[in-house]
Amino acid sequence: MSARPPRIKTVRRPVHGVLLLDKPIGWSSNDALQKVKWLLRAEKAGHTGTLDPLATGLLPLCFGAGTKFSQISLDADKSYLATLKLGATTTTGDLEGEVLETRPVQVTREQIEAACAQLRGEIDQVPPMYSALKHEGRPLYEYARAGIVIERPSRRVTIHALDIIDWQDDRLTLSVRCSKGTYVRTLAEDLGRLLGCGAHLSALRRTAAGPVSVNDAISLDALAALTETERESMLRPPDSLLADWPEVRLAQDEAARFLTGLRRRVNAPDQPHVRVYGPEPQAFLGGAHIQGGELIPDRLLSPQEVSSLLSV
């Protein structure tokens, strides 16, 4: 019997930045993250909030220094294209669940627009049972699969925009822009309830998260077809997740002190969030806030990370 060839171990390396992935349908967010992490041979990686396997679209993936700012993308407003099937409700609120009830669809565009108007702004939303939210250490979907319903407190979310993109019979496509923590499945169910015919989510595509867009994202297949050097060139700097924050630039001596965690005096109004740079054009140092004329560090890169990003 011939000897089995030795297994070649993947050598991990420090990789810093953010990759905008166009997640395919059927993949969990973690599966997509692990695939890209393997393609880049990255040591440290994390994603910025899950997309259900049913959903496609923008999934920012953070590597190395970029992982320090993943929470910013998680907290950012999100935009989606949501396709609803009117006239049917399901156990999960989407097409993966069993149909609970069907009703005839007898609605007008005016009724749909009026229902959308009722759901815009700040609303209270009850998270679905089929979600990853925890109850006593277990995700809710485990209870749901066992036929157990847990009482969930409602939470306040904001629907900034909810507009009709296309409507044909029982298929309705909406453009949604919402705050973090919004369940679009629940939004679809609420809309169906207002219309009196019921509805569930049949397709979902995330188009934006904060300042980053799916228009700049790359698919898994396209990424896999690149060389390793080309893959690394697809990485954006960590501050791309903070691109809509005001910028503060410090002189070299002030930047060095700021990187040690010291507050600095600045001539600027109070700001809840700012991105901070040294004197070099790409010398991103981290995130901070301004209060009472002081620049107060929140999340900083290390000097080694700053040097690594400058050398890219």
Automatic annotation (TrEMBL):
<feature type="active site" description="Nucleophile">
    <location>
        <position position="52"/>
    </location>
</feature>
<dbReference type="Pfam" id="PF01509">
    <property type="entry name" value="TruB_N"/>
</dbReference>
<dbReference type="InterPro" id="IPR014780">
    <property type="entry name" value="tRNA_psdUridine_synth_TruB"/>
</dbReference>
<feature type="domain" description="Pseudouridine synthase II N-terminal">
    <location>
        <begin position="37"/>
        <end position="184"/>
    </location>
</feature>
<dbReference type="InterPro" id="IPR020103">
    <property type="entry name" value="PsdUridine_synth_cat_dom_sf"/>
</dbReference>
<dbReference type="InterPro" id="IPR015240">
    <property type="entry name" value="tRNA_sdUridine_synth_fam1_C"/>
</dbReference>
<dbReference type="InterPro" id="IPR015947">
    <property type="entry name" value="PUA-like_sf"/>
</dbReference>
<keyword id="KW-0413">Isomerase</keyword>
<protein>
    <recommendedName>
        <fullName>tRNA pseudouridine synthase B</fullName>
        <ecNumber>5.4.99.25</ecNumber>
    </recommendedName>
</protein>
<comment type="similarity">
    <text>Belongs to the pseudouridine synthase TruB family. Type 1 subfamily.</text>
</comment>
<dbReference type="Pfam" id="PF16198">
    <property type="entry name" value="TruB_C_2"/>
</dbReference>
<feature type="domain" description="tRNA pseudouridylate synthase B C-terminal">
    <location>
        <begin position="185"/>
        <end position="242"/>
    </location>
</feature>
<dbReference type="InterPro" id="IPR032819">
    <property type="entry name" value="TruB_C"/>
</dbReference>
<dbReference type="InterPro" id="IPR002501">
    <property type="entry name" value="PsdUridine_synth_N"/>
</dbReference>
<comment type="function">
    <text>Responsible for synthesis of pseudouridine from uracil-55 in the psi GC loop of transfer RNAs.</text>
</comment>
<keyword id="KW-0819">tRNA processing</keyword>
<dbReference type="InterPro" id="IPR036974">
    <property type="entry name" value="PUA_sf"/>
</dbReference>
<dbReference type="GO" id="GO:0160148">
    <property type="term" value="F:tRNA pseudouridine(55) synthase activity"/>
</dbReference>
<dbReference type="Pfam" id="PF09157">
    <property type="entry name" value="TruB-C_2"/>
</dbReference>
<feature type="domain" description="tRNA pseudouridine synthase II TruB subfamily 1 C-terminal">
    <location>
        <begin position="246"/>
        <end position="301"/>
    </location>
</feature>
